[in-house]
Amino acid sequence: MKQELSIVLSGEAGQGLQTLEDFLVKAISKSYYVFATQEVMSRVRGGNNTLEIRVSNTPVATYRSHIDFLYLLNNHSFYRVTKRVSDDSKIFGEEDFLSDEERDQLVGTFVPFTLNDYATEAGSVLFGNTVLFGHIAGMLALDQDHCHALINERFSHKKDKILDGNIEAFKTGYELGQAYQEHHDLQNREDEPLMVLSGNEALGIGALGGGCNFISAYPMSPGTGLLTYLAGKSNDFGIFVEQAEDEIAALNMNIGAWYAGARALTTTSGGGFALMEEAVSLSGITETPCVTHIAQRPGPGTGLPTRTAQEDLNLAVYAGHGEFPRMIFSPGHMRDAVELAQKAFYFADKYQVPTFLLTDQFLVDSKFQMAPFELDAKYLESSIVKSTEDYKRYTITEDGLSPRSIPGFGDGLVKCDSDEHVEEGTITESFDVRIQMNEKRLSKKDLLMADYQYPELIGPESYKKLIVGWGSTYGVLKEYVDQYGDGETAYLYIKQPFPLHQDIKKYFDQADTIINVENNASAQFSKILLLELGVTVSQNLLKYNGEPFSIEEVVAYMKEV
Amino acid sequence: MKHFEMDKSTDIAWCPGCGNFSIRKVLIETLQEMDLNPTQVVMASGIGQAAKMPQYINTNYFNGLHGRGLPVAVAIKAANPHLTVIAEGGDGDMYGEGGNHFIHNIRRNPDIVHIVHDNMVYGLTKGQAAPTSPLEFKTPVQVNGVINDPINPLPVAMTLGATFVARAFSGDMEGLKKILKAAFDHEGYALVDVLHPCVTFNKINTFKWYKEHSYPLEEGYDSSDFESAMKKALDTEKFALGVIYQNKNKVSFNNRTWLYQQDATPIVQRKRDINKVNALLKIEA
């Protein structure tokens, strides 16, 4: 009996998979461990998009390639997933959804599923997705009252006919789905209630918790989701939202807002961030904080706009001309997405440096479970000081931090310059002052190490093999160690890939074998490990086709190690 | 002088005879006469000789990147509407490198004064063509003369819906001051294009040339009439000096936002309630 199920719906853009996902994940989360991810083509209508929902007796946060139950939603929804089904897979769909060739070569069991008829009987062909919701709910024996409540919540503002029809459609699906309860042995979860959220929502909540009150951004997948989330919250939380004319304006506005005392955010992807690089450097020399979210996708150039990658670590580490410190955070799970987003604002303010949230399409768009917790108000505290008449923005101090004031707050003037400057902030060409100011700025690299976000070690402490990964590989690598580990393999989850703290070298010293796992082709992090810590990794597991790692890929690779 | 004037010892990096000196003098006098407090004024600038202006005026400033003075200025005003914000730079900075921001900030109508020093040549980089350089203008780069048509910023701004469009000449200091005062009084985006000679790199458009090729708008000129204003703005045979067009009926950027319509408190003075954020981290019933 299966201890977990991988359910995939394969359709096309515009068929409402997003809405269906929201329903399903919320409903399933009440009873089980669940994770959901979509892979979509870069088009608004048509093509082939799939939604995978994993339901399990143990926590899940990554995708499985193998499909247990596949729903085909049109006659061109099978060809891209044929490799993911096997003899024990069930494939639901209308008879004519398979081509003759596909039918001849079919593995698994095809189950005729007249979705349109079921929906029409319930009142309208438009209720198809609710039939599907019911079918999966029946298969998983979900609490029907809770599902009805979700439907009510969604359709309560519509006419009774629509609400009643959807309930009817759900019931039809549920009855049919119940027949498949015997195909699994899923047990209701008994731990605390869990909330479900996407990486975008987690980052957005964190940003709010960090005091974000200004966002300027230019839309670019997959970075747009965070802009949309915060725009949705802007009226409630008092956020100034502006869609900038280009990415250059976006980050320059961000920096202008911080200079005036706001806590500003910019969100983008690699290509947009490339345009922002000069402004990163501006933040560096003017010591004006800024926070940038980079949701990575495969490049170079336009690359694969809707897919995932971890290809822009080098870009973030080296962005901007000249030399200046920065902090880069790479959350791998939802709690860290919330907390690191919050801290990104606090640390930017505290150290007067650019900070980055480096995520990817897989993390921001997928849906994960998270135990509720409360954010600490400490990270809303500001380092801004009231100026006195003799205030100098770049005062040389013992600890290297010049107290930061903002215009209009006190009797002093706040003069910031992208040219090299004296303590007052005005231009200088003195070589001595240049050395002094450059050293002052660079000395912050040591200071900000006091707030280094240490990695988490997952697995046995007496490990001999160490897997290392940063950011969104957390789900797959944790599942590997927890569920498939050999007792001597641990996983080090890096949440601040740059700069690295010397203290974490000890994790690598203990290992006989170090396996670095990244969603890129050139093992970017392994080079940072070498450069910053002198650590040489033994092997690299790299994937760069635009998809995240499946659990099977990691298991298969680790067998060879 | 007090407040906005710098110490006498301030080393000013402009060439002797540069039109920037007059613009600086008039700007300081204007700010003084308007009784503004230097702590409540911010200048945002990019890079170029003109963009050095904030160095020589005693007030808050953010001297950022080439071409990016406007986005910084608009964001400062958005974050704290109580501040008086000036964006200042040259023709290359604002119409060339920063052209996209010039276009889109006119659409926003932010309540800032945008002063552009227009000497039809690049100064800081030593004499190349500016977006406003006339055809056939020879430079060390445009060795056979400029072949690209010059931009005329005023009609560009007007077609985009700019609410205050003015042209001044650094040689007419009284006129410039009048225009600047009107620009500060205007609620919304105010473009002040200031013609001025570059004594080092522009031997064509000299003080004398500007004097001969410009004239003050006649008494009683109606700056609210878009069509006649457009005619004035388009005429480059002889430049009209003064407030060429003004529309007092458009709402400015901040006041268009729901955020400030509901509550005029600058966002930088508001406090975030962590409990309200934590409510988002609770399980929905």
Brief summary of the model shown:
Chain A is of the alpha/beta class and 561 residues long. In chain A, 37% of the residues lie in helices and 19% in strands. Chain A has four domains: 4-183, Pyruvate-ferredoxin oxidoreductase, PFOR, domain III (Pyruvate-ferredoxin Oxidoreductase, domain 3, 3-Layer(aba) Sandwich), CATH 3.40.920.10; 197-380, Rossmann fold; 384-451, no CATH class; 456-560, 3-Layer(aba) Sandwich (Rossmann fold), CATH 3.40.50.
Strands, helices and their partners?
The complex is a heterodimer of chains A (561) and B (285).
Chain A: E1 4-13, H1 17-29, E2 33-39, E3 46-56, E4 69-72, E5 90-93, H2 100-104, E6 109-112, H3 115-122, H4 128-139, H5 144-155, H6 160-177, E7 195-198, H7 199-209, E8 214-217, H8 224-237, E9 240-243, H9 247-260, E10 264-268, H10 270-286, E11 290-296, H11 313-318, E12 327-329, H12 334-351, E13 354-360, H13 361-365, E14 367-370, E15 415-417, H14 431-447, E16 456-458, E17 465-470, H15 474-484, E18 489-494, H16 505-509, E19 513-518, H17 524-533, E20 539-542, H18 551-560
Parallel strand pairs in A: 1-4, 4-5, 5-6, 8-9, 8-10, 10-11, 11-13, 12-13, 17-18, 17-19, 19-20
Antiparallel strand pairs in A: 1-3, 2-3, 7-14, 16-18
Helix pairs in contact in A: 1-4, 3-4, 3-6, 4-6, 5-6, 7-8, 7-12, 9-10
Chain B: H1 19-33, E1 41-45, E2 60-63, H2 69-79, E3 84-90, H3 91-97, H4 99-108, E4 113-118, H5 153-159, E5 164-169, H6 173-185, E6 190-195, H7 207-212, E7 214-216, H8 226-234, E8 239-246, H9 253-256, H10 258-262, H11 274-278
Parallel strand pairs in B: 1-2, 1-3, 3-4, 4-6, 5-6, 7-8
Antiparallel strand pairs in B: 5-8
Percent strand of chain B equals 15-25%
Named at the architecture level, the CATH assignment of the largest domain in chain A is: 3-Layer(aba) Sandwich
> Terminal Cα separation of chain B, in Å?
66 Å
* CATH homologous superfamily annotation of chain B: Thiamin diphosphate (ThDP)-binding fold, Pyr/PP domains
